[in-house]
Amino acid sequence: MSYIVIVRAFKPGDEISCKELIRNSVMSSLGATFRGMLFKEITFQLIILLSAIMFIFFGMPLTICLVVIPIVVILIYVGTYISFAVKQAEINEEVTNIPRLYMSNAFSCFWVAEAFQPYLMTRHPKEVHYTVITEQQYCQANMGVSLQAKKIVGTIGLSKSHRLDKCAWIKRLCVHKQYQRKGIAACLLNTAVQFAIEAGYSCANVVASEYTEGGRELCLKRGFELEQMYHKPILGSYITILMYELTYQIKPSEDDYLSQI
């Protein structure tokens, strides 16, 4: 029995599966982000500040003042969760409008990775070897998978940058946790980069947070380079996440050209 994953262009009807997959992918980093927030300097500052206020202004014993620790932890979690919920709402709106945002012109596209497997799986996906191919390779191979179940297990999108001239943004790269480490993310990323090359872009950029190390490492292995690092606000300017902007240089930039003259 052959198990294959086909990377193909998005088509109507994929919205529900894409929303669920991307939502789970986004929320999967909630725990890591929250744990990272607990060790930020602002967390300790809040604990000290609130304890001091209770001790000095309200005259409470120091042992009672320590109750601020779980309070601050809860506040950090609530704030982190709200930021994730807001992000998820934005993503749902984006996925709903994939046909308009990604599929309505020749300079953007959205792809899904679709797994073909038996209707009655007797083995866990992690234990199965999947052959990952593009839609073009699938058509050329003339493989018969019509009697197998289909499941969308990965997504990626590419759109034109409104900030950088002749540059594309790669977004929504995610793979179902049961299908990771099988080459699916690499194939999705290669497909998006190849599209950017054929569309005439000079570079393709992707952004990853400090808590998505796996995706960042994959991009670096595929030829992306670190462009810049910046802090993204979570709760105003008090709590932030370190973000990495990576770039894949397709054509020499103007600065590179001038330096060679």
Automatic annotation (TrEMBL):
Residues 96-245 form the N-acetyltransferase domain. InterPro entries: Acyl_CoA_acyltransferase, GNAT_dom, NAT_camello-type. Keywords: Membrane, Transferase, Transmembrane, Transmembrane helix. The chain crosses the membrane at residues 46-78. It comes from the Eukaryota. It holds the Pfam family Acetyltransf_1. GO terms for molecular function: N-acetyltransferase activity. This is N-acetyltransferase domain-containing protein. PANTHER family: GNAT FAMILY N-ACETYLTRANSFERASE (PTHR13947), LD18367P (PTHR13947:SF37).
